[in-house]
Amino acid sequence: MQLPKGFIEKYTQLLKDEAPAFFQALNEEPTRGFRVNPLKSSSQPTEHATNDPVSYCQFGYYGTVSGKTIDHQSGLIYSQEPSAMYVGEVAHPKPGDRVLDLCAAPGGKTTHLASYMNQEGLLVSNEINRKRAGILAENVERFGLQNTIMTNESPDSLEKHFPAFFDVVVVDAPCSGEGMFRKDHEAVQYWTPEYPLSCANRQKKILKSALAMLKPGGRLIYSTCTFAPEEDEQNMAWLLQEYADLQLLPIKKYPGMADGRPEWADGNSELTKALRIFPHQMRGEGHFIAQLQKQITDVKTKELKPQKSNVNKLQRQDWHKVADQLLSITIEDSRLLAFGEHLYAMPTDLPELSKLQVIRPGVNLGMFKKNRFEPALPLALAFQAKDFQEPVPITEEQWVDYVHGDTFSISDVTNGWHALTCHELTVGFGKVVNGVVKNFYPKKLRFSINK
Ligand SMILES: C[S@@+](CC[C@H](N)C(=O)[O-])C[C@H]1O[C@@H](n2cnc3c(N)ncnc32)[C@H](O)[C@@H]1O
């Protein structure tokens, strides 16, 4: 990889003796990894080795992911570069918290944050770019999140809907991506000496909105995948100067993780509390993480009106005709929200959504068709086999047919909708008609595997 001349000059000056090792590390192979989803019962991957754990992330392992596996299709694993796993670990929300992931696509941090929340509380996963928001939705649905809504807003418009609302806000900022150079060679082409400063200005605007949405006493986690001091220490120094009610909190540093560099900003020694990951010092890509807390005040924050269910009697009947036969758990009627022709189960602590650009207001339960209801894949993936009546275990061969969109035969199963399971994980729905499983796996997700 040919590094830009300006980049080499900049980091030779900043890193001094360390610079040769740093540049050499940028020419080595990137580190790959994945997280295991704790929301999918206690299942462990069967197609991916878990003998090389990431010491600083309870769900993380080193290794490469294959998308054409039951582990991946069922949402049991999520491919994520190991350094990026430390962002979620630092944020570590509690079940019941209100959490915002402000720059969320493709979903690495959202799925990780949810892993600590036990499907409780509220996670708002926001992505400004519509196309990327679609990819985010696919990943969140595969991971099976029940407490998450996805929005497609700019930070300054989202800010109007959630004043001082969240316990934890994560800003995994759009950045110059220097830390991803060896993983994404395109990032090298974008780089100019001026690029980090233009990214830093954009990040300041995002941070202002993030702080407006943070509760007093709440935590803001800021991360980038760049080495650029303009976007890292200098932005944190700017925050501390601008907001007297903010303080940096320490972050536990595992071997190889480095302190933030005050001398690369305004010299404020508090900046050592931030964290840097350099690829020449540990196994992972470049990253910067800072954790800040907003001072607690006795000013009362405004409670937001809750979102009410809007389904009519007919829609409720159509849903129950399927749900009462399919599910062994109850989704309360108060959580049902019709959204176009789709039906969703909202998270319990959801404020009114009016005027908000919502991509998914909860779990997509399915679609109203003429006089009937058809369950959707996200409903199957959001729950475990035990949450369904008569789940149908399928073989690996039948799973290959299923993800390809083919029908297959099955014996001794009653007619009607069933959750299909493979390796004890839910993988989707099939409608059984006289021993044949009709395939409802979404066309755009289908793939083939050579038998
Ligand atoms: C580093 S990526 C986020 C990665 C994601 N958190 C994850 O872990 O998978 C930054 C995201 O910020 C979005 N973005 C770009 N400009 C933005 C802006 N002005 N405000 C908010 N988000 C923005 C990008 O579309 C991109 O999806």
From TrEMBL:
GO terms for molecular function: methyltransferase activity. One of its GO terms (biological process) is methylation. The active site is at 225 (nucleophile). The keyword Methyltransferase applies. It comes from the Bacteria. It holds the Pfam family Methyltranf_PUA. InterPro entries: Methyltr_RsmF_N, MeTrfase_RsmB-F_NOP2_cat, MeTrfase_RsmB-F_NOP2_dom, Nol1_Nop2_Fmu_2, RCMT, RsmF_methylt_CI, SAM-dependent_MTases_sf. The keyword Phosphoprotein does not apply. S-adenosyl-L-methionine binds at residues 103-109, 127, 172. Keywords: Cytoplasm, Methyltransferase, RNA-binding, S-adenosyl-L-methionine, Transferase. Residues 1-295 form the SAM-dependent MTase RsmB/NOP-type domain. Belongs to the class I-like SAM-binding methyltransferase superfamily. RsmB/NOP family. PANTHER family: 28S RRNA (CYTOSINE(4447)-C(5))-METHYLTRANSFERASE-RELATED, NOP2 YEAST -RELATED NOL1/NOP2/FMU SUN DOMAIN-CONTAINING. This is RsmF rRNA methyltransferase first C-terminal domain-containing protein. It comes from Pediococcus inopinatus.
